[in-house]
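[09:14] KT: can someone run the structure on this one? pasting the chain below
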Amino acid sequence: MNRIELVEKIATAHNVSKAEAARILETVTGSIIAAVKKGDPVQLIGFGTFKQVARAARTGFNPQAGAKIKIAAQKVPKFVPGAAFKAAIDPKAAKRKADKAAAKPAPKKAAPAKKAAAPAKKAKK
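[09:31] RB: done, structure tokens below
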């Protein structure tokens, strides 16, 4: 699905004009971009999270020249799909994850750590 198809889908689903649907879509995407650009994550429950991550500087390889090159650190956008989105795409994987979580026993709480005995003070002579 591309942008035009999405605009048509919004227009027919909500009985608005294509121009109005395009403005709505532009507002949504513009708001997400502005928030992520500021460093704020945008979390849509059930769908996913848009966020900004820092990519460290690294050494790459130029296969054409056969030389190593330095790639500078940069900030990049990242999308992490939500559980409902993942389950809609692959219901079998979601069922396996739920079964695994149900079969896993509850973790036992560890006893509080005992304090080490304080060293004895030396007597003065």
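[09:33] KT: thanks! The longest helix spans residues 18-38.
[09:34] RB: yep, looked fine to me
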